[in-house]
Amino acid sequence: MSAVFSGRFFDSDVWHSFKGSPSAIVSAAVALVCVFCAVFADWVAPHNPMDLASLELADALLPPAWLAEGKARYLLGTDAQGRDILSALMYGTRISLMVGVASVVVSVVIGVALGLIAGYAGGKTDALIMRVCDVMLSFPAILVALLVDGVGRAIFPAAHDSLAFAVLIVAISLTGWVQYARTVRGSTLVERNKEYVQAARVIGVPPLRLMRRHVLPNVLGPVTVLATIQVATAILIEATLSFLGVGMPVTSPSLGTLIRVGNDFLMSGEWWITIFPGAMLVLIALSINLLGDWLRDALNPRLR
What we know:
Blueprint: H1 2-10, H2 13-19, H3 22-39, H4 41-44, H5 85-121, H6 123-137, H7 141-155, H8 161-191, H9 195-202, H10 207-215, H11 220-243, H12 255-263, H13 272-298
Helix pairs in contact: 3-5, 3-13, 5-6, 5-8, 5-11, 5-12, 5-13, 6-8, 7-8, 8-11, 9-10, 11-12, 11-13, 12-13
C-alpha cells in the first residue's frame, strides 16, 4: 500500500511542480532543517539551556565565536545567564513551532466543522455562523489574542508553563478559525449542488456522513494551503505576544521570549542575543510562506 502511494505521489503533478520550483526546494530544505533541530534539540543542541545547574555565569555575554572575545564552544555567543544562544534557538524554535502547529490544528478543526455546517445547511444556520465570523473579523487578531492571554494570566497568575501554553493556543485560535470557516463554507456551497451530492441525498445518505465522506475531501485543497500559511502567522503572533510579555515565560522561552530578553541588551552592544532569534523567526516564517505560495500554485488547476 505504501509503495503504491509513494509511486502515485512521485508521478503526480504536485511532485513535478515541486521539482521545477527552486524556491520551493530551498524553502522546504530550510523548514526541514529548522523542524529537525527543534524536534531533536535534546540530541542536536550543544548545550541544554534549560538546565540551570549547567550554566556558567563566568561565560555570560560572550560574543559569537568568530569575534575576538568569543569561544568556540559557544558558536553564536551567550546571553546574560551564560546560556548558549544556538542551543536556546533550537529549544525556542521547538516551542514556537508547537504553539503555531497546535493553534492551526485547533483553528482548522473548528473552522472546517462550522464552515461545512454553514455551507450545507444554509438558511438561518448559515446566517448565524457568518455573523459570528463577521464579528470576529471586526477585531484585530493580535488584540483579541492579547486580551485572552492577559485575562488567562490574570485568572491564573501562578500558572504552570503547560497552562500558559494552552492559553496561548486558545488566544491564537479564537480568531484563526474564521478564515477556514469562510473558505470551507464557500467551497461547500459549490459542492452541495453537484450531482454526486444530489445522488447521495437520493439514496438516503445521512447529512453528517455525506458532509464527512463526500463534501469534506473535495474542500480540503484550499484548507491545506491556508493552514500552511497560517502556521507562519501563528508563530509570528506567538512571538509578538511573548515579546510583549504575555506569551511563554522565561523558564520556557520561545523565539519571541528570546527576542524580548535580548532587546534589553541591544543598545549596550550585545546584539547577538536578540539578532539571532529574530533572524531565526524571519527564516522560519519566510520558508513556510514560500512553501504555502508554491502549494497554492501547485494545487491550482488553472496554473498547470
